[in-house]
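Reviewers asked in the last cycle whether our approach scales beyond single polypeptides. To address this, we selected a multi-component target totalling 852 residues and predicted its structure end to end. The input consisted of the following lines:
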Amino acid sequence: MTQSDPIQAQLIAARRNQILDAATKVFAQKGFHRATIKDVAKEAGIADGTIYNYFENKTGLILGLLERLNETRNRAANLEQVSQGDLQEQMRTYMAHRFETLEAQGFDLLQVLLSELLVDADLRDLYYQQIIKPTYDLAQTSFKQWEDDQRIKAIDPFLSTRIISGAFLGLILLRLLGDTELQERWHELPAAITEIVLHGLLPGENNEQDANR
Amino acid sequence: MTQSDPIQAQLIAARRNQILDAATKVFAQKGFHRATIKDVAKEAGIADGTIYNYFENKTGLILGLLERLNETRNRAANLEQVSQGDLQEQMRTYMAHRFETLEAQGFDLLQVLLSELLVDADLRDLYYQQIIKPTYDLAQTSFKQWEDDQRIKAIDPFLSTRIISGAFLGLILLRLLGDTELQERWHELPAAITEIVLHGLLPGENNEQDANR
Amino acid sequence: MTQSDPIQAQLIAARRNQILDAATKVFAQKGFHRATIKDVAKEAGIADGTIYNYFENKTGLILGLLERLNETRNRAANLEQVSQGDLQEQMRTYMAHRFETLEAQGFDLLQVLLSELLVDADLRDLYYQQIIKPTYDLAQTSFKQWEDDQRIKAIDPFLSTRIISGAFLGLILLRLLGDTELQERWHELPAAITEIVLHGLLPGENNEQDANR
Amino acid sequence: MTQSDPIQAQLIAARRNQILDAATKVFAQKGFHRATIKDVAKEAGIADGTIYNYFENKTGLILGLLERLNETRNRAANLEQVSQGDLQEQMRTYMAHRFETLEAQGFDLLQVLLSELLVDADLRDLYYQQIIKPTYDLAQTSFKQWEDDQRIKAIDPFLSTRIISGAFLGLILLRLLGDTELQERWHELPAAITEIVLHGLLPGENNEQDANR
DNA sequence: TATGAATGAGCATTCATTCAT
DNA sequence: CATGAATGAATGCTCATTCAT
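The resulting structure, written as structure tokens, was:
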């Protein structure tokens, strides 16, 4: 009936974001289950019922958060440029970038989503298909390429991908679980991970100096 | 009222375990929040009210589960013998053992606990102090020792510990999040992790063949 | 504010009818309580709020439907001509006509209205005064006339009226309650009712053949 | 766990009846939809939640009421004895008895149930199958018997049954709809119905005087 | 101690109604 | 007048917890 689809769409998107922002904040403080719709509405400065004009139900808020995460990630992925320099430099940059992206998302959000993902199988599948799988596939492709170029050893790319992204994910989890010391040295991680992953812990020739050469 | 301490204590412990077993099963199936006390009681074959004779409240069940996990871990740690062989062999054995211990606990339980930990700050602190921190400290001590013995390079033991246990934790999380392929190749992980962590991905002398020798 | 009475009035009446048509359809499908204003508005192709320009509130829609029913009935009553023929013929024709009128109204609508009437005392009184009472009075007058003319026996006209219109109403109710067989033989009812009411079930001289003579 | 099934069953039945009594009262006053569970609980002198220990949900209360109606009816049917005397006497007694049974149930209850039946198709089917249909079948059998015995004319038993029970039902509906005069003369109905149904309205030999003799 | 019926606070969700545009 | 987003009161239902037996 009313004209101006695009303006309408913008208003709707704005309202959705307003609600999701509030949800992020409230869920992070209280956890998804303990937080009430009233809490979220109050935080957003709107009425309870309004939320239901923009989201199917409470779970819809989680879906909305996942969507936003997905969009942000995709946008980030598009911007991601092949970094210059040698492999170690590339990897370090890549890791640093990934960590930054996450930092921008807010660890609170991750905490909430992760907690729900662990509990809700449907959500888990959705997240796995939409976010984890694509990330893997990309990483795995890079690994194969490096392997083909003989820049890295011929180790199983599947397992390597899992192990490295696992380390990544695990460090985040450790931080979420309250490792404050880790938090303080967060910025040192990209270099440290890269160092270990590329050269290993054993003493010998594959040391950093060599690699940088 | 309570005479006969030892027998009483055993009965109480037995009942607590009976309830916790039921809780483990039910929480694993439905998740902590969706599971009701009635569910747990039914599974344990007792009345709802009886649970409250052994646990403060529903959260008490989680605490009880964490406690048991802690005990199991401690017992496992005590049994853990310094494995024979070279460093790689030792590490591989250690990893395999840790994975086995986890496997025995049941991933379902882990899923539930993790989900609650992420949401409940008090629980998180408790878990961090009781389980994560001690594990770190132990691992970090080993690292320092190896470093002193010059069996590994002098990389920051703090970060190394975090990265490796992070990888460990992260891989579990990936599996919990639904990576079925990873699940199928689960037994290959100890060797793969050890290989990467010790020798790195770069081609060179520290290669697997040497290490296996 | 409101100039141009006649045109305005027509527009208003048209819109009211448009809304009531939609309400009839929606209420018939979902029942009054399950149907929402949004449903009615959507069916009418207008906005929710618009309905409130033409009706006080949701109950106002029921009142509006009753009003229309009333008007239709009055119009029908005015058109109702004293049918020719003997008493049985007259009665049969009258009954058939009444059934037809109802049929035209739609049984669904009746179902909805009846359900609300049973629940809402105010509505009930209104309906009783506006529709049921007048119908009675009319019928009762006819009965008295027939009685005076000695065309029927001198039985209490009050009770006779109630019993016969009760039979009428009851048959409708039976149909509304799901008697599909009755529905299939619906057209046979006027004759059957008339036969029983005039001649009775006992075997004897007052049989149909005689009466038709 | 606890012994004494029969006592348990009695307690449960008592509590159910207590709740249904309260529901009858409250629903009759406010109507099913306007009445809240809280209302019913308050009337029954129990907590809201307790209702849900005995009934699935709010609709379950209606089902419970129907069940009780059904049981009462069955019990009444079993007690129903073939009355002595001529056909008119029998019919009059039967009608009077049916009216009494209804009166005992309380018209309020009927009002509530009828209203819901009209709106809820599932409930309607249930009621039709459980109560209306059996009643019909019984009545229709009697009709056929009388017909075979040539005590009544050979009119279609199907339609006759519907018309007479329709009259019955319709009179109740008229009363429910607020016909207070009818209410006052309620006790005269059995005789009046019987008179009309057996002898008809036409003057002639099958007249009341004969029948009453 | 064990029981499980009773409790009632708590919450997601609906939807009639309003009102700024 | 028409719109439809916003409102928020209202309510069915859940379930952790209590306590009389």
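Chain B has a mean pLDDT of 86. We regard this as preliminary and will revisit it once experimental data from Aim 1 are available.
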